[in-house]
């Protein structure tokens, strides 16, 4: 069955369909298990570009691609209907005389076609589709806006398109949707931010754009489940760029994330794990009453990934504050660590050992 999936869905290392696609700093996507094996074998270059990687490269979840893979359905060629050539569809979309219903149909067809075809995604931008798509994103009609955002998201999945989409004004439109769009549109807009932020230069551009980070923080407060999750994912992606961490902190994101984490949004711990790397982030976390208690709850009940971020965040905080060490001890963190020290995951064991050593260095344990 895997051979019937688009090549973009296959890990470049294993050549199998990806179950947990993640993005290396080089911008290329791999299945998490495959790239972790590559890194654990001592490699410190990108398997595709052969360019050097940091000592501990950040693996950014490619939620947009993961969603496409999970929603992908095989189509029986015998039942498929002939459709116009993509270039014809683009020409009709860019025509000022195309009525609303026609545009909805065109966007639907183009979104379906580009979902599976990376070469076509590049072709569409070459054929001048981007301005027409962005005009539809600006529409007051929520259905048209949603269809246009879905196509924009597909186009952004191609690395060659990411910088060009931002240069043509995609961020302006997407940020406006984050504020004023329907719930579904806001969620897709946040996912688009995540996709565009794969390219390092785009992280800087998005962060510097007026209200972009503030709009994502606002969505954490006002959005529903999916919107909050996608907004947190977008913040995680853009805050790997150091300057954006301080911008997010200045927008008051830290107490909001801790509150969401306490309410069950585990994605929040990933963002906190990035923000804790800067002094301002640590200082804000230290001000939040109950922060340590919430982090310890993640260690008790979180997923494997959540536990890793919880250990890292708690270790960074305890390294800076003896008071938090004793708070962590009072919350039972040592007993939890004793259970995690035997974990199969090497990163979990390493983070656990680091936290225990930090507690010992700060005399929280003898």
UniProtKB/TrEMBL annotation:
TM spans (from-to): none
Pfam families reported for this sequence: ARM_PUB, U-box
Span of domain U-box: 4-79
Annotated InterPro entries: ARM-like, ARM-type_fold, ARM_PUB, Armadillo, RING-Ubox_PUB, Ubox_domain, Znf_RING/FYVE/PHD
EC number: 2.3.2.27
Protein's pathway: Protein modification; protein ubiquitination
UniProt ARM repeat ranges: 128-170
GO biological processes: protein ubiquitination
Catalytic activity field: S-ubiquitinyl-[E2 ubiquitin-conjugating enzyme]-L-cysteine + [acceptor protein]-L-lysine = [E2 ubiquitin-conjugating enzyme]-L-cysteine + N(6)-ubiquitinyl-[acceptor protein]-L-lysine
One Gene Ontology molecular-function label: ubiquitin protein ligase activity
Protein name: RING-type E3 ubiquitin transferase
Organism: Hibiscus syriacus
